[in-house]
Design a protein that fits this description.
This protein is an alpha/beta fold. It contains 20 helices and 11 strands. α14 packs across α18. The structure holds 6-O-phosphono-beta-D-fructofuranose. The site of 6-O-phosphono-beta-D-fructofuranose has 14 residues, from loops.
Length: about 525
């Protein structure tokens, strides 16, 4: 990791600044297409199970070459290789970042005895977890599975279970409870019977206050409503098996500190997905991600999709000054994808210092946001087309539908194409309120079908593009100190809410606390 050179300290950075002034800031997509019949071919990229059209982005061949040069000069490739080798690149916690190992096949070639041992552990845990998933699937008495977890212990499995609904077994309802707000758990419990419910307490640390509070309440509800046999009705997914045992849960599936929370969907945290789509489906999901890992690991920079996307992210954030990216999945099953990507990118790259702790002189994580198409079109797309800010949009479309309702899918696909087209071409022939400036950039990710494998590839692609921009920015993308302060303060405030003690609080917090007690 120490061989990394922060992007702004490379020769290519200064050249990119010059390129931005010379051609970048006034780049016009319409002219670029008019001048180059090969633009679509040149700026699109096939990767395993995902095709990306990047041609509607404000980039030309010369800038792209400078971006590749930036990647070379900053040591991106050795940093990537360090991640795959299990080097502790999470330097503030001295941990490896090895989620790629979770999807490596059992017979994969390993580079060290440590890696071989870790891979063997991964597969014995995976086999046990998938065997358990199959047992639950074939247990007709269990009709409801409740995942209790938050952040990475919720967003990944929830997003994936929804996305792969077409592959899910019937007869099992999956519920996700994350918020400490009791309305969420109470509303879920109201639908359940202890005898037919399985609670999965998902927490890497097994200390997260929201999850512990929800798990305690679920256990109390279970016991006070005649539930018996905790071992059958509660399982824990955690790196902290001892804490789960102390809690009274004996059915446990472990993972390791080298799996970051937001990268844990591939570990035991994926159990809800494995129950939904079965062991074979889960293995396909891992295989799709592994195919993307291999692409990221071996494809040359110039044809490496995560690299191309991550470089584009940097170009937009640091040169064009775009501060957000809108995610537009044109598939209703991908409706939690924006929320999932928010944690992935903003918790990873929302950092203001580099890996050495030095303040950064440039912007990092953009704000990610979005809703499924076509719904977003009737809400905030007005701003995307005619607002004062330029927001690059990332469309995600799926060629084949899994329903047989005539007309819907062609109409959906027509809409996604039309939106991307409208953003770019604009409409100059009408003045004033009806003027569309156009030249608004977008990327277009295309899956042939939404399957366990293609979802795995899509998610791994996103993980790696976040790695690329984070690596170039010189930050540690794998810690999340920014979430700690609020946790500490909530611990201080909770007893004050009971006692009314406002001593030492700022005026606003004291005033609000008093109002909440009245
Ligand atoms: O508060 C942020 C965070 O630490 C996330 O990184 C993590 O995914 C989430 O909390 C949940 O943590 P755990 O799985 O340990 O309960």
């Amino acid at each position: 990791m120490m061989s990394r050179t922060r992007c702004d300290r490379t020769p290519a950075w200064a050249q990119l600044q010059a390129a931005y002034q010379a051609t970048g800031k006034d780049f016009d997509l319409r002219e670029a297409f008019a001048n180059d019949g090969q633009r679509f071919a040149q700026f699109s990229q096939a990767a395993p199970l995902v095709f990306a059209d990047l041609s509607k982005n404000r980039i030309d061949a010369a800038t792209q070459e400078l971006l590749f040069e930036l990647a070379r000069e900053s040591g991106l490739l050795s940093h990537r290789d360090a991640m795959f080798a299990g080097v502790p690149i999470n330097n503030t916690e001295q941990r490896a970042v090895w989620h790629t190992l979770l999807r490596a096949p059992a017979h994969a070639t390993t580079a060290s005895a440590d890696e071989a041992q870790a891979l063997a552990q991964v597969h014995s845990t995976l086999d046990a977890m998938l065997a358990y998933a199959e047992t639950v699937r074939s247990d007709a008495a269990i009709t409801d599975i409740v995942n209790i977890g938050i952040g990475g212990s919720d967003l990944g499995p929830q997003m994936a279970v929804l996305a792969l609904d077409a592959f899910a077994t019937s007869g099992k309802r999956l519920h996700f409870v994350s918020n400490v707000d009791g309305h969420e758990l109470a509303a879920t419990l109201a639908q359940l019977q202890p005898s037919s419910t399985l609670f999965l307490v998902a927490s890497k640390t097994f200390t997260t206050i929201e999850t512990m509070t929800n798990a305690q309440s679920a256990k109390r509800w279970f016991e006070s409503n005649g539930g018996a046999n905790i071992a059958r009705h509660f399982a824990a997914l955690t790196t902290n098996v001892a804490a789960a045992n102390d809690f009274g849960i004996t059915t446990t599936f472990g993972f390791w500190d080298w799996v970051g929370g937001r990268y844990s969907l591939w570990s035991a945290i994926g159990l809800p997905l494995a129950i939904a789509i079965g062991a074979a489906g889960f293995r396909e999901f891992l295989a799709g991600a592994h195919a993307m890992d291999q692409h990221f690991r071996t494809a040359p920079l110039e044809t490496n999709l995560p690299v191309r996307l991550g470089l584009l992210d940097l170009w937009y954030r640091n040169f064009h000054g775009f501060t957000s990216r809108s995610i537009a999945p044109y598939h209703s099953a991908l409706r939690r994808l924006p929320a999932y990507l928010q944690q992935l990118e903003m918790e990873s790259n929302g950092k203001r210092v580099d890996a050495t702790g030095a303040a950064l002189p440039f912007g990092t994580s953009p704000v990610l946001w979005g809703e499924p198409g076509t719904n977003g079109q009737h809400a905030y797309f007005q701003m995307l087309h005619q607002g004062t800010d330029v927001v690059p949009v990332e469309f995600v479309a799926v060629k084949k539908a899994r329903h047989s309702l005539d007309a819907h899918h062609p109409l959906l696909l027509a809409n996604v194409l039309a939106q991307a087209q409208a953003l770019m071409v604009g409409k100059a022939d009408a003045g004033g309120h009806k003027h569309f400036p156009g030249n608004r950039p977008s990327s277009f990710l295309l899956l042939d079908e939404l399957t366990p494998a293609s979802l795995g590839a899509l998610i791994a692609l996103q993980e790696h593009r976040v790695f690329v921009s984070g690596a170039l920015w010189g930050i540690n993308s794998f810690d999340q100190w920014g979430v700690e302060l609020g946790k500490v303060l909530a611990k201080d405030i909770a007893p004050r809410l009971a006692s009314g003690d406002t001593q030492g609080l700022d005026g606003s917090t004291a005033g609000l606390l008093a109002m909440l007690r009245n």
